[in-house]
Design goal:
Blueprint lengths: L2 H5 L9 H23 L13 H9 L17 H32 L9 E6 L19 E6 L6 H15 L7 E5 L1 E3 L2 E5 L2 E3 L3 H4 L1 H11 L10 E6 L7 H14 L4 E4 L6 H10 L2 H9 L8 H4 L1
Parallel strand pairs: 1-2, 1-3, 3-7, 7-8
Antiparallel strand pairs: 4-5, 5-6
Length: about 300
């Protein structure tokens, strides 16, 4: 027997080309995915510790947009003070109208130009299966789509809002949202936005941090859009029962006076297909969808 056969058995050289190619593809896939994850920034994922509700509330109320208006406890018992309060409210309404028009004019100036395309914010929860691949299947012919992937476990409402503001300023300083996609888990009548934060028609009326989130989000919506700004919901069918309609109505009330319409069509409907095509390459989306719950996902196919 040849010495070479002892150290290098012939079986080592009997791999089929298909096996070699398969092995090589797996190596490339692993490198590509690792490189992709390395450059993917997930909002809230680097938080050292999750903030308590009290800390989040204190942080939120430190902002000018959420400062409560001081009202004396006995003001309603004195007619003079009551009259002064009404005058003060009238002044505040007048100031609000002036601020609204000033902000609207600034936004119009920022959006001026034939090359301007209104931004579309895509908010993606990490709780969605295979969420890390979603930014790779958006429409490549539409530069106005801005994907934001956030950590469902550790991100806060403030983290999300600050990231949206930052991305809008990078896109075009002073511009606002015309269309928005919230891609998260949920079900009939509820949205699972963050860990232990489920939006229902009742909770958006009484949970302070959730109320402030939607109010502050409304300030990022466009004032110059001649049509109502649209917030699409994907990943769940909120309108599966009457509580979904109540939830959307309460959210619209919270975001008033900004005109916002909420839509959550079934993906298999004509409206659902139109919604998908607004943000995604439809072919890549269908491919991602068919492999969303599979343990094996061919990253090269997605790209």
């Amino acid at each position: 027997m040849l010495l070479s056969h002892i150290f290098f058995p012939p079986q080592l050289f009997q791999f089929r080309w298909a096996q070699l190619i398969s092995l090589f593809s797996e190596i490339l896939f692993g490198l590509s995915f690792r490189n992709f994850r390395k450059h993917l920034r997930m909002v809230g994922s680097r938080r050292v510790k999750a903030q308590t509700f009290a800390e989040r509330r204190e942080r939120s109320f430190s902002r000018s947009w959420s400062d409560p208006t001081p009202i004396k406890a006995d003001s309603f018992h004195d007619s003079r003070e009551s009259h002064d309060l009404q005058d003060s409210c009238g002044t505040l309404d007048g100031d609000f109208d002036l601020n609204w028009e000033a902000e609207k004019e600034l936004e119009a100036m920022a959006c001026d130009g034939e090359d301007f395309i209104p931004p579309k914010i895509m908010l993606i929860s990490s709780k969605v299966p295979k969420a890390e691949y979603v930014p790779t299947i958006i429409r490549r012919d539409d530069p106005s789509i801005i994907p934001i992937l956030y950590d469902h476990e550790h991100a806060t409402f403030d983290d999300i809002l600050e990231e949206i503001e930052k991305k809008l300023n990078i896109y075009r300083k002073g511009c606002k949202i015309w269309k928005m996609l919230i891609f998260c888990q949920g079900g009939p009548g509820h949205l699972y936005l963050l860990k232990n934060k489920v939006a229902t028609f009742a909770k958006v009326e009484k949970e302070e941090d959730m109320i402030l989130f939607w109010k502050r989000l409304s300030r990022l919506m466009s004032k110059v859009n001649p049509e109502p700004n649209i917030i699409h919901i994907m990943g769940c069918y909120v309108l599966g029962n009457p509580n979904g309609e109540k939830l959307f109505q309460n959210l619209k009330n919270l975001m008033n006076p900004y005109r916002v319409a909420f839509e959550s069509p079934l993906e298999l409907s004509a409206q659902g297909k139109q919604m998908i095509e607004t943000y995604f390459d439809f072919r890549l989306y269908r491919l991602w969808k068919t492999r969303q719950h599979s343990k094996l996902l061919d990253y090269d196919d997605i790209l």
